[in-house]
């Protein structure tokens, strides 16, 4: 049975999770701007609690974004360092998918419109539907103004659950779901679940292929000329 380690730092939350011998453990903290200081200690504490050596890990999963530029880069830097040292494959998982999987785990939602506040008056957006326990993308992910988001295939919005900080713009969105949680953030426990499906499909890649997905072309706003 495989041992998987999962890390996510794409939003205000910093979380790690471990699957070992069929048992999942996770740590989760909402600590804006402290991810770089806390991530490796959280990994160490998690492994210590599980009684598992880092060398026993078969693959490392990470939230690839979209999310905060710095946060996504922190996770990728740590994952690449560990994967290169251990010579282990990595698994990249969308943070919008992680949000959707969390909504399924906590709310039983089977259709989730995941939205993360992208700043600059936009949201990262993706719609997911449950397929055999796994949230799968319906359509494509995008970065959009709140006024332009929509669930796929003109489905009734009431059939969907809204998850994530992007739903803070709900008053500007053209469709409103029957229920939503605008405080929901990605959690490594749900990343671990999705990584398990990806691992079973043989989707692990080499460490140098651990790449971010920002959705936005310009991840930083250039300074104006004086």
TrEMBL record:
Keyword Repeat: no
Main location: cytoplasm
Cellular compartments annotated: Cytoplasm
GO BP, sorted A to Z: proteolysis; tRNA threonylcarbamoyladenosine modification
UniProt cross-references to SUPFAM superfamilies, sorted A to Z: Actin-like ATPase domain (SSF53067)
Organism of origin: Pseudomonas fluorescens
One Gene Ontology molecular-function label: peptidase activity
InterPro entries: ATPase_NBD, Gcp-like_dom, T6A_TsaB
Keywords carried by this UniProt record: Cytoplasm, Hydrolase, Protease, tRNA processing
Domain named Gcp-like: residues: 31-152
Family the UniProt entry places it in: Belongs to the KAE1 / TsaD family. TsaB subfamily.
Lineage, top ranks: Bacteria, Pseudomonadati, Pseudomonadota, Gammaproteobacteria, Pseudomonadales
PANTHER family: TRNA N6-ADENOSINE THREONYLCARBAMOYLTRANSFERASE, TRNA THREONYLCARBAMOYLADENOSINE BIOSYNTHESIS PROTEIN TSAB
Keyword Secreted appears in the UniProt entry: no
One Gene Ontology term, aspect cellular component: cytosol
UniProt name for this protein: tRNA threonylcarbamoyladenosine biosynthesis protein TsaB
């Amino acid at each position: 049975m495989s041992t998987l380690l999962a890390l996510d730092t794409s939003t205000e939350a910093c979380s790690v999770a471990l699957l070992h011998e069929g048992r999942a453990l996770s740590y989760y903290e909402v600590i804006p701007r402290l991810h770089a200081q806390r991530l490796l200690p959280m990994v160490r504490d998690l492994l210590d609690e599980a009684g598992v050596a880092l060398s026993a890990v078969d693959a490392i999963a990470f939230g690839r974004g979209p999310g905060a530029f710095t946060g996504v880069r922190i996770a990728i830097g740590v994952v690449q360092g560990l994967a290169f040292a251990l010579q282990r494959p990595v698994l990249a998982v969308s943070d919008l998918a992680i949000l959707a999987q969390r909504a399924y785990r906590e709310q039983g939602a089977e259709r989730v419109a995941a939205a993360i506040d992208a700043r600059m008056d936009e949201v990262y957006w993706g719609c997911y539907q449950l397929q055999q326990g796994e949230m799968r993308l319906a359509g494509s992910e995008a970065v959009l103004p709140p006024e332009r988001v929509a669930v796929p295939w003109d489905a009734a919005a009431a059939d969907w659950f809204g998850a994530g900080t992007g739903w803070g713009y709900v008053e500007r969105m053209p469709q409103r779901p029957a229920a939503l949680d605008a405080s929901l953030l990605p959690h490594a426990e749900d990343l671990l679940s999705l990584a398990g499906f990806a691992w079973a499909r043989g989707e692990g890649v080499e460490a140098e292929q651990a790449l971010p997905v920002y959705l936005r072309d310009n991840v930083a706003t250039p300074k104006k000329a004086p």
